[in-house]
């Protein structure tokens, strides 16, 4: 199915870059395949984790799916306030993963959250590498203007097996660290609770 949005003809079977005015594009940070991986801005390197498909989710509403990870752009914790981070997540039926495309300046688009009514935006209006994507009220600002380019037919970079193995190890180590931190927190809570009961006696 095809739909017209601004100057761009969106097709579900095509992949696009989502570029800021300076040419940097939205990507999944560090080609991370895990739920919760950040969406950020970076120089375009022709990589699959920098390419997206627009999957129709309703009338003029899309899910934005990453070519490499297969996960979709989502509002962190289903947040609807200014400054809510964007991350990737496994597809659900929720509106936190649905976005509408609206015309902006010079053939660009704005990308509006169907849940929050706010627009994909860059933290503190930063347009450099590593800028985190968030949502914000509509503003006449370059950090809410995006330009789509069809890159389906171009050769796309994928990480090597060695890179993926290294990434997996790093994710495993981080998960173990997070689990240990959580366990320590729970242990402290239990200790405080026990002390509180002892004091009452």
Number of helices: 1
Largest sheet, in brief, is:
2 strands, antiparallel
Average pLDDT level: 90
For the secondary structure, the number of strands is 14
The coarse silhouette is globular
Radius of gyration: 20 Å
The strand order across the widest sheet is 1-2
In the predicted model, the low-confidence regions spanning at least 5 consecutive residues are 1-7
Helix content: 10-25%
**SS-based structural class?**
alpha+beta
What's the helix-strand series? EEEEEEEEEEEEEEH
Task: Give the termini separation.
Answer: 70 Å
Task: Tell me the β content.
Answer: 25-35%
Describe the structure.
Strand 1 and strand 2 (8-11) form a beta hairpin. The protein has a two-stranded antiparallel ribbon. Strands 3-14 form a two-stranded antiparallel sheet. Strands 4-5 form a two-stranded antiparallel ribbon. It has 1 helix and 14 strands; from the N terminus they run E-E-E-E-E-E-E-E-E-E-E-E-E-E-H. The protein has 201 residues and is an alpha+beta fold. 33% of the residues are buried. Helix content is 20%, strand content 31%.
């Amino acid at each position: 199915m095809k739909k017209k949005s601004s100057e761009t003809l969106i097709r579900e079977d095509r992949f696009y870059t989502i570029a800021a005015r300076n040419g940097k594009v939205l990507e999944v940070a560090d080609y991370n395949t895990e739920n919760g991986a950040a969406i950020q801005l970076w120089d375009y390197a022709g990589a699959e984790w920098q390419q997206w498909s627009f999957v129709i989710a309703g009338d003029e509403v899309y899910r934005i799916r990453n070519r490499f990870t297969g996960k979709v752009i989502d509002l962190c914790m289903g947040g609807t306030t200014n400054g809510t981070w964007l991350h990737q997540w496994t597809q659900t039926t929720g509106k936190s993963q649905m976005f509408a495309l609206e015309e902006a300046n010079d053939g660009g688009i704005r990308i509006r959250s169907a849940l929050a009514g706010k627009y994909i935006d860059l933290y503190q209006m930063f347009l450099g590498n590593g800028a985190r994507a968030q949502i914000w009220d509509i503003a006449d600002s370059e950090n809410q203007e995006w330009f789509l380019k069809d890159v389906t037919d171009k050769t796309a970079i994928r990480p090597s097996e060695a890179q993926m193995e290294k990434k997996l190890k790093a994710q495993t180590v981080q998960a173990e660290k997070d689990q240990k931190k959580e366990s320590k927190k729970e242990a402290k809570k239990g200790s405080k609770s026990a002390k509180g009961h002892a004091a009452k006696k």
